[in-house]
Amino acid sequence: MSQWTKIWLSTWSDFKSVLPYLIGGIALGSVIYGFMPTEFIAKVASENTPFAVPIAAVIGIPLYIRAETVIPLSAALAAKGMGLGADMALIIGSAGASLTEVILLKSIFKNQMIIAFLTIILSMAIGAGYLYCYIF
Are the C-beta atoms of 53 and 85 separated by less than 8 Å? Predict the structure, then answer.
């Protein structure tokens, strides 16, 4: 058996072990992304809501928002009344840690590493959202 065949078999084995997590994360992220009403997000994350930025960051983390959809989604949410700081937190939260990524990382890392990763992403999203509100 050649070295390339061994590499291929090893890679395929790793891929098969991660595939259920990947499919589950994509499916769940799609359901959340497709059925979460933007009106609800705009209601809980308006500029007048004191905890709009942390709520938006927490809501953004499970969403799988690709780079191509960030600008239209943020524009739509801002047009519906979402505060720009909360919008920023939603973008950073969703770009930093989608549910698909977390499920994939869960198959590789221990729970402590996943918690540290999510804590850092959440902190950065909240910090950037409040900083944006403060500056602008």
Answer: yes
Here the tokens at position 25 are: 């994360």
pLDDT in tens, 37-55: 777 776 778 888 889 999 8
Exposure of 54 in the CB half-sphere (CA atoms within 13 A): 4
Q: What's the pTM?
A: 0.70
Number of domains in the chain: 1
Alpha carbon distance 116, 111 (integer Å)? 9
Q: What is the DSSP letter of 57?
A: H
User: Measured between alpha carbons, how far is 87 from 45 in angstroms, rounded to an integer?
Assistant: 8
Residue 63 is part of which domain span?
Answer: 3-135
